[in-house]
Amino acid sequence: MIIGLHHVQITIPKGAEEESKNFYCNVLGLPEIEKPESLKGRGGFWMQVGNREVHIGTEDDFDRLKTKAHIAYEVEDISYWKRILEQNNIKLLDSVPIPNFKRFEFRDPFGNRVEMIQKI
Question: Domain 7-119 belongs to what topology?
Answer without folding.
Answer: 2,3-Dihydroxybiphenyl 1,2-Dioxygenase; domain 1 (3.10.180)
